């Protein structure tokens, strides 16, 4: 199997300019049931895929899954304005079960001010290495939340959610759109985008009108359209911990963290 290209670690891309439009923001909100800070991933979507592909061959990319997402918000994305996005593979870390690639993302306004930072963690299943290059993503909570949740919410996942989310987000990975491709990747069929689940869970986690400075989670298990997502929320300092499960009670989103 082709090895990773370690020379790309720490090599930031040129700026990629993206137009944030009111129509695009509204389309994303329509796909995930309301406005969501997770829209911040959309300007970076194509660039993240391109940069991730510089570290791994197409053969390796067939074995990758989205491990976790960590977003730090400094200023809101301005509607009807351009933003500049740059990205880099900032870390490659191996273990016995596979290799973790961490992609860093920075989004800035036209004046150069930093709007948000993101860490996208990809896991290459069954590709063990001894790599220890660059930096890993920021740590997420390792212990389970304690006590009783302060909120619980359940949302049904429409069967057309993957198609609608792909159109609104620009993430057209075929495992979310084509049953044959998903099964070839070892999945039961089409699965819902992890970021769509994070946006949907966020409606339960975040009080109406609350500002957020960090939103993070680990993607622990795929879930099929037509299932339901139940999110439990615990108070945690000035923010919240959360986790989400499918209809059968299996964990789908874990180590969820919100800082306000």
UniProtKB/TrEMBL annotation:
One Pfam assignment: MFE-2_hydrat-2_N
Q: Which family does it belong to?
A: Belongs to the enoyl-CoA hydratase/isomerase family.
Q: Which residues form the MaoC-like domain?
A: 161-244
Q: What is the lineage of its organism?
A: Bacteria, Bacillati, Actinomycetota, Actinomycetes, Micromonosporales
Name this protein carries in UniProt: MaoC/PaaZ C-terminal domain-containing protein
- The lineage's top-level taxon is Bacteria
Q: Where is the Peroxisomal multifunctional enzyme type 2-like N-terminal domain?
A: 37-126
- Record Gene3D superfamilies: Hotdog Thioesterase
What is the originating organism of this protein? Plantactinospora sonchi
Q: Which SUPFAM superfamilies match?
A: Thioesterase/thiol ester dehydrase-isomerase
């Amino acid at each position: 199997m082709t090895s990773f290209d370690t020379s790309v670690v720490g090599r930031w891309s040129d700026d990629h300019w993206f137009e944030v439009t009111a129509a695009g923001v509204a389309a994303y909100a329509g796909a995930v049931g309301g406005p969501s800070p997770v829209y911040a991933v959309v300007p970076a979507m194509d660039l993240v895929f391109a940069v991730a592909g510089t570290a791994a061959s197409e053969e390796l990319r067939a074995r990758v899954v989205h491990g976790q997402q960590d977003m730090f918000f400094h200023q809101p994305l301005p509607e009807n304005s351009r933003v500049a996005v740059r990205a880099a593979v900032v870390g490659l870390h191996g273990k016995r079960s596979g290799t973790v690639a961490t992609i860093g993302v920075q989004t800035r306004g036209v004046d150069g001010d930093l709007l948000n930072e993101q860490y996208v963690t990809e896991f290459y299943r069954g590709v063990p290495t001894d790599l220890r290059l660059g930096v890993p993503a920021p740590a997420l909570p390792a212990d389970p939340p304690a006590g009783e949740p302060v909120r619980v919410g359940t949302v049904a996942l429409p069967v057309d959610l993957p198609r609608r989310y792909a159109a609104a987000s620009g993430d057209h990975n075929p495992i979310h759109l084509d049953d044959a491709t998903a099964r070839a990747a070892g999945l039961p069929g089409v699965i819902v985008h992890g970021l769509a689940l994070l946006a949907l869970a966020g409606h339960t986690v975040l009080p109406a009108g609350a500002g957020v400075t960090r939103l993070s989670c680990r993607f622990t298990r795929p879930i099929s359209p037509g299932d339901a997502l139940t999110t439990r929320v615990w108070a945690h300092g000035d923010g919240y911990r959360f986790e989400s499960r499918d209809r059968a009670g299996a964990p789908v989103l874990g180590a969820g963290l919100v800082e306000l």
